[in-house]
Amino acid sequence: MINLLLTAALATFLLWFTQYSPNRLKGTDFPDFYAAAKIVQAGRGHELYEAKVQDEFLARYAGRVGTYFIHPPVETLLYLPLSSLPLYRAYQVWCAVNVLLLVLIARLLAACVITVWSWRILLPLLLLFPPVLLNLLQGQDAILLLMVFALAFVAIRNEWMFTAGCLLACALFKFHLAFAIAVPLLWSTGKKFLAGFASVGAVMFLASAAISGWKFLLAYPRFLASLHGLPLAGIHDEQMANLRGLFGLLFPGMPRVAAILTVASSLLVLWFTMRGMLVSRSGPHFRDLALANTVIAADLVSYHLSPHDLAILLLPMALVLNQVLGRSALPRTMRFLFSGILAGLLLPPLYLWLLSQHLYTYICIPILVLFGLIYREIWNSATAVVRAKAI
User: Residue 190's pLDDT is what?
Assistant: First the structure.
């Protein structure tokens, strides 16, 4: 009966959220994916990264031009089945797929991470998370990315390193986040992880070449580099909750200073992340916190980060929450600090206010604090273990 009521509630939410209106998809990202799939379907994949071609298909199928498809060619395979449907119907189906993925993620987290809570409790919390709602609104792919990361980390916890590498490589449709996570993991997991990551990565690379031709190796980077010169391309410092967005907003008109600070702080974050992964070999407590920091670090050091991309923070937040709920040895002060930051990051008020003020990038400040607190707990706990063994 509970499952039936929950299914009815989700169906009602989905119907309400995707209710039709003539302007419903204007200003959203889903038409970009849909138009890209239509380009490939028309046999013009070799023109995928020509702005004029994307504008042509957006105007034809969405009635507008503006933002662009900026992901690798292989991702269009996800949307090809939807491209046979009318645009709005395809959007509704994609939203339904995303809600189903959220159900699976909630069940996975309840089974493998926060085992003291039912997935039926976790699911509403996932739906309340503002980046998840933004993802559904935009018709984006961050929920799929979260699912891939969650599966990869379950594999790592079970020491299925080749499988973990294969799964993480499936996230290369957002390669700037996948590589940022893979680097610290490669540092600590060994050859099996690398073999899995490289093998699936090679398949995705070849699939991209089959879709867009080998010229995509030049056309794609050239297209990404040109985005700043394209109107409505969606590249704004105030919308990116990462180090690049933060320093870009703090130092307007000083791009060189912002770039230097971004690179230096990103290298520092990655160094702390890799150091935490090495320490994590001491036990499962360290491992979970170190894994949490790899995802947080990926968000912080990413070159481009849209507001909905913060949906992947649900994984590290779940790993930290499990420590708060289940580990009695966690110091009371640390438990209090973790709880406060998690509550602030999970609930909508902070996001709504910052979005309304066009200051979304400042969300990266509590994310940075959470990263620092996690690293401090890893280091302090590891130091205590070493001292205990010495005695």
Answer: 77
**Rounded CA separation 237/239 (Å):** 5
Express each pLDDT in 47-99 by its tens digit. 999 989 999 999 898 887 778 899 999 999 999 999 999 998 999 999 999 99
From the CB of residue 321, how many other CB atoms can be counted at a distance below 10 Å? Answer: 23
For residues 119 and 110, the answer to whether their CB atoms sit within 8 Å is yes
Contact yes or no for 18/92 (Cβ under 8 A):
yes
- Measured in whole angstroms, the distance separating CA 302 from the mean position of its chain's CA atoms is 10
Which of these, 185, 167, 129, lies nearest to 309 by C-alpha position? 129
Q: Compute the distance between CA of residue 29 and CA of residue 304 in angstroms, rounded to an integer.
A: 15
Give dist(CA 187, CA 76) in Å, integer: 31
**Euclidean distance between CA atoms 4 and 99, whole angstroms:** 16
Residue given tokens 């935490």 in the structure block? 276
CA distance 205 to 211: 10
Residues comprising the chain, all counted = 391
Nearest Cα neighbor of 314 from 123, 120, 178 is 123
Can you give the pLDDT at residue 285? 63
Nearest to 265 by CA among 280, 246, 237: 246
Q: For 24-39, what is the mean pLDDT? A: 88
- What number of CA atoms fall less than 13 Å from residue 56's CA on the CB side? 11
Q: How far, CA to CA in Å, does 250 sit from each of 99, 270, 303, 364?
A: 36, 22, 17, 13
For the packed helices 175-189 and 142-157, what is the interaxial angle rounded to 10 degrees? 10
- Residue 362 predicted with pLDDT over 70: yes
Average model confidence (pLDDT) for the chain?
A: 87
SS3 of 129, please? Answer: coil
Long-range contacts of 227-233 (CB under 8 A, 24+ apart): 227/68, 227/70, 230/51, 230/68, 231/66, 232/65, 232/66, 232/67, 233/67, 233/68
